[in-house]
C-alpha cells in the first residue's frame, strides 16, 4: 500500500472518531411532556442493552449513562458511526428536593426508554 492509501485511511479514521464524538455529544434524542401528574421523558437509545442503561435524577438534572460492547468487525476495515458510550445530563422542567426520593418508572422497548417521573406537588401562594 502506498503512502496515499495510508493517508486516506488515517483521515477516514480521524473523521470517524470525530463523527462518533459528535454523536455522543448530541445524542440521544430526548422528548419531554407533562402527562397529568407525571413528567414523561422519552430517550432514544437504539442498540444499547437494557442492562447497560443507567438513569438518575439530582435536583433538576437527569443523568443518562449507556455503554455498548464492542462489535466484532466483519471486514478488514471497520468504520464505526454509532456511539459506544453516552454520558449526558439534561435539565428537567421540574426540580426534586434532596430529601425527596424520586420513584420513577422506566421501560425499554424497541430502543426507546420511557421514563415517568411524578411531578413534585407545588403549593399555591395566595396573593392578598
Automatic annotation (TrEMBL):
Among InterPro entries, the record links this protein to:
A-crystallin/Hsp20_dom, HSP20-like_chaperone
Specify the protein name: Heat-shock protein Hsp21
Q: Which domain of life is it from?
A: Archaea
Report domain SHSP positions: 21-128
Q: Which family does it belong to?
A: Belongs to the small heat shock protein (HSP20) family.
Q: Please give the organism.
A: Nitrososphaera gargensis (strain Ga9.2)
Q: Name one Pfam family in it.
A: HSP20
